[in-house]
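Key idea: predict the complex, not the pieces.
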Amino acid sequence: MIETQKKIDDHYEHWEHIPVLPQFNEPKNASMVLIEIMQTDNTNDYWIEAREKYKFLKYQGKESADKLYTAIYYLAYMNEIINLIDLREELYACKSKLRQLAIKRYIYSIIEPDKSENLNDYNPHWVDIYRKTFCTLEDIIDWFSTDKFKYLNQIFDITGTARYLLNDLSLRMTIPIEEARTNPYIDSYTGEAMIEDEVITIPNKITLPDKDGKPVTVNFKNKTYTTTNALGDEVTRELVDDYNGYSWGGDFFDSDHDWYEEREITSVPINQMNDQEMKVTNDYYYLKSRFQPIIDELTRQYDDMCLLNSYEPEKAEYIVKNSLLGMSFKKALRQEFHNFAPQDLAAILMDLPFDFSINGNLDTIIDLFGGDILESIVEASGIVNYNEHHYENVIELLHKETLHLLEEVANDRSPKQSAIFTTEAFKAIAEAGLPIPKAHELAYEKFREISPAGLNAYRQALSQGKSPRKAMAAFYKGASQSGEYTPIDKFHAATNGYVKVKTASSGYTQIRKISWDIAKLKAGKSELFVDPKAPEKSKRWLFEMLQAKNWSRKLISSLAV
Amino acid sequence: MIIQTGGSSVYKGKWSACDKPMVNKMSCYTDLQILINDLVGVYLLAKGEANREFCYIRIRKSYLDLLVLQTRRFYNAPISDTKLTASLFKYLADYKDPIVVPSPYPSNVGRDEQVKRLEKIRQNIAIYHAHNRLESSLAYPYGRGIGESTDEYPHILQPAVYNKLQFTLLNKGY
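Result:
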């Protein structure tokens, strides 16, 4: 309450003390007022004075008065900064301490008006001044370039002044501070200490182990060191004595007290080999692209010999190595040997599926560092060698899907194309990894289980000493007699004298010649059919032929399964 | 001297990019062509120049004197005049013998067109001589990079060298 009352009192004081007040009751142009201000005062600080003098404008509550006071306020602010720049230039030039203090106080009051005064170590740097003022100056430019202040800005060029001050301050930032002339350990613009240039201070006393591991305390201040002598007593000696009268010196890598001395000496050649020969160089990738075709070709020849010709690996290796291509490759690599790093050539040779010897040096490198060289090769991004667990599930699904599709496309009229036969054969190959004849045998065995009567007949025939082929014929007979399974042959061709059929037992791959009578008998037992996909012309020809042979319509229709 | 022009692709160890292979009446490869394919395939693979630029290959045996000039990189790539120029230029830099090259272009290119293109190749080689320098990757007898100075090959400066280069055109019916 007291404070507000005081404010109001101040307010009325202004009204009473200012004689020009009645002028503003009349309507007046704002710019005229400002010109009056400039004319009436003789000092340079007329804007600063006007800011105090016309403070009452704030309380008028009119828009034009507000506008006027804003202009006065910021012109006064810029007036202060102009003064500040002049004073800052004067600060280190003047010799009077009192004057310096006054200047510092003035600058401090403008730059940091909210903080309490602490001028002991205060050095106003240009960088600080810029940092504190540029926001306000930029705001002035923004505000006074709007339409609201259009005419005032045209007359007094407020934005121009602000822009000038901004440029001036940013230029002055490039002047190094005065302390930088004498102190090399500070930033020459901000005056902050530079961390990387800080001086390391060594403590007065340091305790370090000597070469025997006993602690020695060195006192740099007294120039003495404390250690134990041969009797085990603690003795203090002067540092100076050891160095023949000179002060303590030397570096930490004194060769006489080298702590590497006691260790085993590592082998220089092995270190070099480790560093240089375990990793491929960039040339490897060039060589790889150059020699990839021959690596592929030699690998292909070797694989063909092993897999297709079923040679022994040693024999295939011998043949490939001593072929014209192998010998030429050896010769070419011996020519290249001196142009490339040996580990690159070794990495190329390790791509081959067999040992390929160029010379003893490369053999040694492959033996000693082969694994490391291969590890150092950077492969193309995106190619990852997954563990088989990653794709096991996918392959399982694919296998199931394949079996399902095999069942869908199966043709049960022929044993070899039936669902049981095909799936069992595929399982035997894919799951058990059996060779094809074995898989065939197993699939037949499974297939025969569909007809117990046929199976019985098959076993009987075998026990009677018949061949498997005849036993299989007995199976078909038994199966069809019991009505459990009948293989259906396919019409292939016909003439007046005979009929050609494709047999179901062979999977419609073999052709058998039968007479028309047997064909009629087979048709009666529904063991014969005509392919529905056959061309219409042939089908019509067959129909007319059958009618000419006096086949009944029922018999003919039984062919179209 | 047999001159074959072709690319550098190799299939199953055999050179598979001969421009105009020798065929018999049954339009099968002749024995000589099969031998050439084998030898050139082995050379390209062993030297690491398969599917790369080799410029020319010279094979001299008692039973075979062969020169292969590269005109293209792959078996189905179009014939490149630049590559043919480079191959010829490198050959002329290495050998002083006169050379007669049968036109490598297929018959559908047209006789006039062939004459124009071959003439241009001769001109290009002549221009290099006029400049008296070899700062081109076209001729790199010792590998890649900036070419050697002409001091090492004084005979190239003689205009007689490129005058030794001749082209023959094939008959229309070929």
